[in-house]
Amino acid sequence: MITFRIWLNRAIRWLVALGQGVGQWVMGETAVIILSHDITPAQTADLQTRLAFYAPALAAKGVRVVARVGWREMWNKRPLLLFDTPDRLPRWVQKWRSGVFDIDYRRNPRDGWEWCDLAAYAVSMGRGQTRTNADERETFTHRITQLHQQKLHKCYLFGTGPSLAAASERDWGDGYRVVCNTIVRDADLWHHLAPHFIVAGDGIYHFGHTPFAHAFRRDLLARLRESDTLFVYPARFDAI
């Protein structure tokens, strides 16, 4: 049974979304908004570089820096990037306005995850589509069914560290194999392990805009093309 409070929250979210849509229609195409009272030109340029990676279609429209949030910024669907302390945003905006992302790397260690959420938001704004959870669930379930037929009774998880060097000294075929992180760099070890799954879930080092993250994805793609390994990752990174 839906309680009055749940119904009220849904109604408010619907009204805010409607207001954002009307505001977007009235003001037309606007740039991505950056809220900051102390951002430097160099920092603005850096954020534009990141934006070009995560949401190139939005980056092409430029950015607009504001020192405070006015009605134009509140009633708008364009992403609002917070490069400041959260108290710069009115509490109701933090709670109800969609498209707010805390990307201030100076104080938020999870800014990479915020950028990935922005990428997904940009896809939804462009009415694009990534694969659905149902599609991915079917792929995963099919692979699990196949693996069950092997009737193995062990599972080996390979991460990083000094002990990984010894992994090439024995056969691991008596168990299911799951690998993670930078094992993708070592093609010989990868094929020796012949992993069933590789997992990754870091918004900065795996799905970020840095050269390290680019190298990880390049090596990962090469290993996946060379094998039947299934890549498993959080759905929030699908837009990347």
Describe this structure in words.
This protein has helices at residues 4-27, 41-54, 56-59, 71-74, 91-96, 111-125, 133-148, 187-193, 211-225; strands spanning 32-35, 63-66, 80-82, 100-102, 155-158, 176-180, 197-199, 230-232. With 240 residues, it is of the alpha/beta class. It folds into two domains: 4-125, no CATH class; 133-237, no CATH class. The strands form two sheets. A four-stranded parallel sheet has the order 2-1-3-4, with helices on one face. Strands 5-6-7-8 form a four-stranded parallel sheet, covered by helices on one side.
Proportion in β-strands: 5-15%
Count of DSSP strands: 8
The mean pLDDT is 86
Number of helices in the DSSP assignment: 9
Order of helices and strands: HEHHEHEHEHHEEHEHE
Shape: elongated
Derived from helix and strand composition plus strand pairing, the structural class reads alpha/beta
Count of separate structural domains: 2
Largest sheet: 4 strands, parallel
Q: Termini, distance in Å?
A: 37 Å
Adjacency order of strands in the biggest sheet: 2-1-3-4
Radius of gyration: 22 Å
Unreliable spans are: none
Helix content percent band: 40-55%
Give the key terms.
2 domains; four-stranded parallel sheet; 8 strands; alpha/beta; 240 residues
Which helices and strands appear, and what pairs or packs with what?
Blueprint (H helix, E strand, L loop, with lengths): L3 H24 L4 E4 L5 H14 L1 H4 L3 E4 L4 H4 L5 E3 L8 H6 L3 E3 L8 H15 L7 H16 L6 E4 L17 E5 L6 H7 L3 E3 L11 H15 L4 E3 L8
Parallel strand pairs: 1-2, 1-3, 3-4, 5-6, 6-7, 7-8
